[in-house]
Amino acid sequence: MATQIEKSKLEISNGKYCDCPTNHINCLTAKEWILSQIGVWKFSYESRDIRDKDIHPATFPISLPKRCIELFTHAGELVVDPFSGSGSTLLAAQDCDRNCVGFDLKPEYMNVCQSRLSTQEQKSQQIPLCEDARNANKHLDENSINLIVTSPPYANLLNRPRTNKSRRGKLRQNDQYLKIEQYSQDKNDLGVLDLDQYQLAMTEIFRDLLPLLKEKAHCVINVPDVWMDNKRMTIHISVVKALTDAGYELRNTIIWDRTNIVNRIGIFGWPSNYITMGTTFEYILDFWRPPSTSSQTNIPV
Q1: Nearest-5° Cα angle at 240, 233 to 90
Q2: How far apart are alpha carbons 36 and 67 in whole angstroms?
Q3: How many CB atoms lie within 10 A of CB 129?
Q4: CA 204 to CA 134: how far, in whole Å?
Q5: Which domains, ranges and CATH numbers included, belong to the chain?
Q6: What pLDDT, in 10s, does the model give residues 252-267?
Q7: Which residues pair with residue 106 across a beta bridge?
Q8: Residue 167: DSSP 8-state
Q9: Which of 77, 118, 262, 289 has the most CB atoms within 10 Å of its CB?
Q10: What is residue 144's three-state secondary structure?
Q11: Sorting pLDDT into bands at 50, 70 and 90, what band is 55?
């Protein structure tokens, strides 16, 4: 069972043990690299993925963090998920032989995560901590993280009855209809905050994470936007503002095209109010910790 642990530094490695040249940011071949340069990504779910919203209301497929891990790290390096939920990032790290630490406030999610991880012995470690991400610096050293990859709570936008407007016909009246699918009601949970409070909390958390991240190491955040009360709630813009205020630099915006996993979508707005279907795409925002001025190479003009 995953439990709250004493705040002490973890004994976990972050050094690569592949033979890649030091100026390479990953172990990919050129052919694999170019596939990731296309700015629209698709993923499929597999048997290990959790699709049951009674277990967790908003999971991403293991293949999403796996692609980010393969793109931005080498074997043996350290990946961190500050909002790890049911542990998909830790499973992806295990598949890729990367060390990984996942933080989450909810013991039930940490227990689910622990049960999903393989017990097969390997060189890397994957550690789920029932802990607030605000305390990450109590467990990890500065300049130790090679990649942050996560999907944070969507502010308080799940804290309302689900109406299933994105589904058509009888599919709307499923087990989730009119349920409130919030992560928790913990006062420290970002999912109880309105969008303005959420942005400030994200700035605070990621400002504290920044010194733990190596220079030029990436931070990848997956979020959707949400329609509520006939308004687009632009979570992705709040995340961009929060992280740039915290000192990160936005490097790439990737669209997660979800059309291959969405069936019989409902009709929004027709015939008088055009609304793009939030269920058909999400944002994958790629930031990094900018290199310090002293470490940048002067390039002649």
Answers
A1: 95
A2: 8
A3: 22
A4: 8
A5: 30-291 (3.40.50.150)
A6: 999 999 999 887 777 7
A7: none
A8: B
A9: 77
A10: coil
A11: low
